[in-house]
């Protein structure tokens, strides 16, 4: 594996983990939350620098349904993450402290909504590119029977994660953050530890990642079936 690929993967993993940590704001507050946000923002900028070729090719080639969907998700994710960064600066109380009362309130409003949408879009983006990770795993040589076992084992895990992810989405009333149906200071279950809240965020993210992956896989299957019929 090339060193550039290793760096890109390391940046993506670190950025994903930081975003999950930032989702637990009520447990990791104030200055630590802001410093983690700044770090995640820097990693996001580096991610885009390393993937600059995507921008140079955006107006090239033909667009099918899958490419349209991927482009839309990427642009919306770019917009929401920049929204997170700007609103975080406006509502900052420790690192930047540039806003007044009205600016801080606006920043908090935008930060709640853009963070929630960025969380979902990030998970969808991961699902659209999950085949890359599967391709790496498939290069590992193992016994065919063992391979079948692990394949079904992971499928069962995915089913569990999706079911539990739906439960968490409802239990945490996540739609309230998506559409700002609550005040900035949302009530959280104070009995949950940081580790539990972090794992729940991973599971909820896995729901959107898995659903996106299988929708894309089904779309590619239908496309291949259509080609076979027309050949």
UniProtKB/TrEMBL annotation:
Coiled coil start-end: none
Keywords: Membrane, Transmembrane, Transmembrane helix
Organism the protein comes from: Brotonthovivens ammoniilytica
Transmembrane segments: 9-28, 34-52, 73-96, 116-137, 149-170, 194-215
Protein name: DUF4405 domain-containing protein
